[in-house]
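> run fold Alginate lyase family protein
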Amino acid sequence: MGRKTTTSLMAGAALTALLALTTGPTGAGSARAATTAAPVSRDAERGRTPTSAPPFHHPGVLVGARQLAFVKGRLDAGAEPWKSALAQLTSSRYAALDWKPAPRATVECGSGSHPNHGCSDERDDSMAAYTDALRWALTRDQRYADKAIGIMDAWSAVIREHTNTNAQLQTGWAGNNWARAAELIRHTGAGWPAAAVRRFESVLRTVYLPELTPGSPRKNGNWELIETDALMGIAVFLDDRAAFDRAVTMWRKRLPAYVYLASDGPLPVPPPNTDIKGRDALVKYWQGQSEFRDGLAQESCRDFGHTGWGLEAAAQTAETARLQGLDLWAEGRQRLLKALELHTAYDNGTSTPHWLCDGTVKTGLGPAVQLAYNEYHGREGIAMPQTARYVAAHSPFGVNYFIGWETLTHTDAP
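> ok
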């Protein structure tokens, strides 16, 4: 039996299984079933690994089976904004069937990607793989599954290390996309040969995890949150409970140090595992901001672009955790809600008060709000007027480094 015939049979069986999963742990009952079915344990609250843990749900990195079935139904009905969002994906350069990957053994990335020896190539190739994987999962067009497989196979045959000052961040950016692409392709019957899957697993374990696991506690907070996001996604793909638990611990420590709430006290929570403590050190770390109010982020006075990355990485991690039965969304609710409403207000045109960044901010959150908006407004029914206005003005959201196609995947997602 030839590969195409085998693949077609696998795809049909996989689609049946995919739809059947909507009655399982990630799709049963209400939209909150996944999180209420497996509440945070006392061990987890205290940062300890539980004595036993449930198996991982697949596909379960950012996008799950129930979401795929929901989006496919909306697309079959020709409904908006999913129709326009898919058209945006389809017409993008990342979905080109003549895409040629450019893998390297050593990806060298300095500050600001200078030097850029394979940095943008790896980010673009990983996003192309995820784009193709999404299109395959939603349309069952085998050409896109094959293209995603080809890109991932090309890199897993070559990549051996990331080097220079941006190595960890680069690993996070690309690792997020690789994990999402690989998870979709592996668990939707796309026909990825087992030997190729094992090689990709090996590369994620030996090249990516060692860069991500230590985190980057002294860097601006978006770094460690992006690394946490990638670590969790890779952990799910590898069925690696220890790496998953490490990501959860990193998230729980970093988000409170990234977004301020008045309940923290007069000063922000210090970044974990650093000596950045005391008023002078924290004000310097918070870009010179000396007055702290609900929703302010550690990088707000740097620019909203990097702040958006940090908030989005926290949201993406929470969404993957939700698919695995852990409700980080609830744990981060007030910080993420306050942060999104504060920052989108200024992106929407609200005048900047003098207390904030001496009256001047660099706006532009980018496509960094859809997941949290869908969770808190869509699933939980919380009013988010500024974020709603921002979504209406800027969607459909496209691609930005490790963020891709979230109007398509997460508008009204169950």
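The CA atoms of residues 26 and 34 lie 5 Å apart.
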